Amino acid sequence: MDGAVNREKLFSDLRALVEDARSLVKASTEEVKEKTRDAWDRMRQGAEKIREYWSGAEETLTQKTLETAKQTDKTIRERPYESLVVAFLAGLLLGIVVARK
């Protein structure tokens, strides 16, 4: 009879252990889901900040590019011969550098 009691106690302890393991897995799964959700939220927020930053940077770059192009056009129109000499020399130097390689 003593063996039957020990066996019942063993099975009872095993059931309790299995139940505790299930509870632990369930709690861990919920915690992982929550942390994953939080990580995705932070990533989305970061991506949104990057989009906002890039949008502003792109607009600034476009404006600076247009201003530079206008200034270059103005300089070429005011000094056409000097501009031709500078362009010729730049092309000559570039040709020499490329020819050496």
TrEMBL record:
Please state what the protein is called: DUF883 domain-containing protein
Q: Which organism is it from?
A: Candidatus Methylacidithermus pantelleriae
The UniProt keyword set, sorted, is: Membrane, Transmembrane, Transmembrane helix
Q: Where are the transmembrane segments?
A: 81-99
Q: Which domain of life is it from?
A: Bacteria
